[in-house]
Amino acid sequence: MKESQKKLINSLYETLIKINEEGLNDDQFYEWISENYFFENNLEEIIHEIKKAKTKIKN
Q1: Which of 8, 31, 34, 59 has its CA 20 to 30 A from that of 16?
Q2: Measured in Å, how far apart are the chain's first and last C-alpha atoms?
Q3: What is the DSSP letter of 40?
Q4: What is the C-alpha separation between 56 and 16, in angstroms, rounded?
Q5: Would you tell me how many other CB atoms lie within 10 Å of the CB of residue 42?
Q6: Mean of per-residue pLDDT scores for the chain
Q7: Domain ranges across the chain
Q8: What is the pLDDT of residue 59?
Q9: Whole-model pTM?
């Protein structure tokens, strides 16, 4: 895997964590996320799956 691709995965992971945290701290944002959610799984499950996948990335 290219270094640029690793950076993209890490960036995605960090961004989803920030979105999740913001939603937990702001009811209006949480409602917006819930109404406009486009992932098949919930956000916390996606974050967990990306974290697992990150451990499989070869250095």
Answers
A1: 59
A2: 8
A3: S
A4: 19
A5: 12
A6: 88
A7: 3-57
A8: 57
A9: 0.77
* Maximum pairwise Cα distance, the chain: 40
Q: Which residue is it, tokens 């406009």?
A: 36
| Planar angle of CA 26, 31, 37, nearest 5 degrees | 120
Angle between helices 3-25 and 43-55 (to 10 degrees): 150
Q: Quote the CA–CA distance of 35 and 39 in Å, as a whole number.
A: 12
Residues belonging to the chain: 59
Please report, for residues 2, 20, 21, 43, the alpha-carbon distance to residue 25 in angstroms, rounded to integers and kept in the order given: 35, 9, 6, 15
DSSP reduced 3-state for 59: coil
* DSSP code for 41: S
Question: DSSP of 8-40, one letter per residue?
Answer: HHHHHHHHHHHHHHHHHH-HHHHHHHHHT---S
